[in-house]
Every structure is written in structure tokens, then in C-alpha cells.
Amino acid sequence: MVVSGLQIAAAVPCASSSRRVYKTRAAILGVDMKAASQLKLTSSYHISSASARPFIRTFTCTSKKFSKVVTKAMSGTTEEGIASGLPIDLRGKRAFIAGIADDNGYGWAIAKSLAAAGAEILIGTWVPALNIFETSLKRGKFDESRVLPDGSLMNITKVYALDAVYDNLEDVPEDVKTNKRYAGASNWTVQEVAESVRNDFGSIDILVHSLANGPEVSKPLLETSRNGYLAAMSASSYSFVSLLKHFVPIMNPGGASISLTYIASERIIPGYGGGMSSAKSALQSDTRVLAFEAGRRHKIRVNTISAGPLGSRAAKAIGFIDMMIDYSLANAPLQKELLADEVGNAAAFLASPLASAITGTVLYVDNGLHAMGVGVDSLIFQDLNVPKDDGKS
Ligand SMILES: NC(=O)c1ccc[n+]([C@@H]2O[C@H](COP(=O)([O-])OP(=O)(O)OC[C@H]3O[C@@H](n4cnc5c(N)ncnc54)[C@H](O)[C@@H]3O)[C@@H](O)[C@H]2O)c1
């Protein structure tokens, strides 16, 4: 008998010295994706399922900075043929994940966790990044990152071109229509993508919004232009409203939607500017209102994950992500690296029937950093006996 769905297991340190070694059954490896520019675009394409031997990777942690408690999605059978634990079972469910253009970000990790739990995966990729993403997929550049806990490769049933700042064709300005980065792609407005998914598959169960953009993100709010502010809101918050609005009619009752937010929506994070903090605040507020509206009318749950810092392509473009990762390691209750998989697994839980009463929430997956009121690495606290992970326990 095959155990259904996705089970969670924590990898145990192989050695209990300050040099820790962890073994995991699968690992996401970064692939350096260059910005997609001046590339000819193609329409949607399919990649077929394949299987591979389990990919084994050993992490050798030489400093606390790389200390990991690896929590992995596991799926498989037990020796007795009895399902152990409490599985996340998404077999028979179909997910549309908007905002994947490489294998480094949260969207990819969420796709993998949903796939490990048995969901069928559809992806929406930003039009200017589509060609390079598809080419990389076809050439097998992501194959190592596609390995699931059971050794098979994540199957992406279809990739759709998407630009989530345009609801329909009438919204698209002439200069975008004629832009060479959009040439060759079609049906990429939100409404058209929802229609294409309906025509191709009829319905979905899970909608994931893992995208954001703020052209003036590096400017303080006081120096942000109206256009920059509104562009951040359009790409990072209204894009979720629009996606849900257009996909809700094809979402099965009991379905779930998830977006990604950041603590800068609630607390001051200098450097996260250009209206991006405002956009994330709107996203969190909208999560509550949409939970009510989509819950009452369509029995759809709406939640958002407030994720800790990850060195994704989008985050690197902001310019201070390494600083935020270091700050988290120094100050969060859990002093370990945050893995994209941990956000992926939280998303799989939220999307699953196990979370059937959870809606309208912000779920923090950030090693607990959001709960801190002070930064304990401040010199002010040097004489305070602050417990630290010295790597011994
Ligand atoms: N990386 C972090 O530290 C962090 C922390 C908290 C929250 N988040 C959030 O996680 C989500 C995913 O970001 P990520 O950091 O994983 O980076 P990422 O680069 O993997 O994902 C961002 C995606 O948004 C896409 N995108 C941008 N504009 C788009 C548009 N108009 N239409 C469609 N797609 C568009 C990009 O192509 C990219 O694939 C974002 O909402 C981000 O704000 C990230």
C-alpha cells in the first residue's frame, strides 16, 4: 500500500560537534538564471513526467551561519504498509502557481511541496522571463531541483505566460503590445490565463500568488513617485485580487489560495521601499476581506504566508537580502537558515484539508523573527545574558 500525500520529517544531525553534517534526501540547488531580456517568447508548453533516483546531498556546516535543521517533505510507504503520521494528501488536486521563473524562489519551493503531496502543477511565468524559463526547463537545468522526496521529478503539466498587472487585453498599452519582450506570447493577461486554464483543465483547487514587483523598491517611501508607488501596488497587491477574482469561478469549493507577504508590511524595514511595504500591507488586509468574500460566496480559503528572508532573484535585486538573512540569524528565536522548502511545506499544509478551518490568516514562516521586539545583537544588550545557539546542543 502506498502512503498518500506528503509527510514531514526532520533530518537529524549526523554529528553533534560544532561542525555539523546533515543528510537530506533531496535538496534545491541554485541555478544562476540571468535576467530575461530581449528574448523571443513562445506560447505555453508541456514537460512530461520522469523519474530519477533519489538525489543525495550532504550539507557540511562549518559555521552557525549555515546551521540547518532541515525539515523535508517526505512521501512514501511504511514497512508495515500503514500510513504513519498525519499525511498531507493533495492527490486529485490541481494547483496554479503564479510567479515562477527559476528554481530559487518561494514559488518553486511551494510547487515542489504541492507536487510531493500529489497535486498537479500548473505554472504562470512572467512574460519577459518565460522564454529563458522554458528553455532552462527543456534543457534539464532544473532537473536536480525537480527531485521530489520519493526520487521522482516534479512534473509541471503546463507553463502559462502571465503578466499579472494586466487584467485583460484592453488594459495593455500599445508600447507593451509591441515590446519585443512580449512578442510571440499571447493570452497572458489574467483574464485570458484563467480562460486558458478553464479550457485546458476545467478547474483548479489551489491558487498560489508568489510574485511581487516594485520598480522603485530601493527608494525610501518619501522619495517614491506616484507612478512607482502605484506600480508596486499593482504588481504586488492588486495582482492577487485580480488573480483570485478571475480564478475563483473555476476553483472547486473547498479550494485554497495562498500569497506571500513580508514583515515590512507591519514593521519598519529600512531598504524595502518604493511602496513595497505599503503593497504588502494591502495584501495582508485584502487577505482578510477576500477570505470573507471568497469564503461566503465560493467556500474558498484565503491565507498569506509572511516569509522570512530568502536569497531569491527578486530579493537579490533589492540589494540588501544578505544583510536581512544575517540579521535573522542573529536575532530570530530559531537561529538557523530559513529554507524555501519550509515555506513550501507550510503552503502545502495551508492548501490541504488539514487547514480546512484556517482562512484570513497571516502565517509567519520566518524562524520567529516577527515576534521579536528588539534586535538582540545590538551593543546595548551586550551585558544581557541572551541565549545563543552555540552549535553544541
Ligand atoms: N525572498 C524573500 O526574502 C521574501 C520574503 C518574504 C516574502 N517574499 C515574497 O515571496 C514572493 C516570491 O518572491 P521570491 O522572493 O521568491 O522571488 P522570485 O524572483 O522567485 O519570485 C518573484 C516572481 O514574480 C514574477 N513577477 C514579477 N512581476 C510579475 C508580473 N507582473 N506578472 C507575473 N509575474 C511577475 C517574477 O518573474 C518572479 O518569478 C513575492 O511575493 C515576495 O514579495 C519574498
UniProtKB/TrEMBL annotation:
<comment type="similarity">
    <text>Belongs to the short-chain dehydrogenases/reductases (SDR) family. FabI subfamily.</text>
</comment>
<comment type="pathway">
    <text>Lipid metabolism; fatty acid biosynthesis.</text>
</comment>
<dbReference type="Pfam" id="PF13561">
    <property type="entry name" value="adh_short_C2"/>
</dbReference>
<comment type="function">
    <text>Catalyzes the NAD-dependent reduction of a carbon-carbon double bond in an enoyl moiety that is covalently linked to an acyl carrier protein (ACP). Catalyzes the last reduction step in the de novo synthesis cycle of fatty acids. Involved in the elongation cycle of fatty acids which are used in lipid metabolism. Required for normal plant growth.</text>
</comment>
<keyword id="KW-0934">Plastid</keyword>
<comment type="subunit">
    <text>Homotetramer.</text>
</comment>
<dbReference type="GO" id="GO:0004318">
    <property type="term" value="F:enoyl-[acyl-carrier-protein] reductase (NADH) activity"/>
</dbReference>
<protein>
    <recommendedName>
        <fullName>enoyl-[acyl-carrier-protein] reductase (NADH)</fullName>
        <ecNumber>1.3.1.9</ecNumber>
    </recommendedName>
</protein>
<keyword id="KW-0443">Lipid metabolism</keyword>
<dbReference type="InterPro" id="IPR036291">
    <property type="entry name" value="NAD(P)-bd_dom_sf"/>
</dbReference>
<dbReference type="InterPro" id="IPR014358">
    <property type="entry name" value="Enoyl-ACP_Rdtase_NADH"/>
</dbReference>
<keyword id="KW-0444">Lipid biosynthesis</keyword>
<dbReference type="GO" id="GO:0006633">
    <property type="term" value="P:fatty acid biosynthetic process"/>
</dbReference>
<keyword id="KW-0150">Chloroplast</keyword>
<keyword id="KW-0809">Transit peptide</keyword>
<keyword id="KW-0276">Fatty acid metabolism</keyword>
<dbReference type="GO" id="GO:0009507">
    <property type="term" value="C:chloroplast"/>
</dbReference>
<keyword id="KW-0560">Oxidoreductase</keyword>
<keyword id="KW-0275">Fatty acid biosynthesis</keyword>
<dbReference type="InterPro" id="IPR002347">
    <property type="entry name" value="SDR_fam"/>
</dbReference>
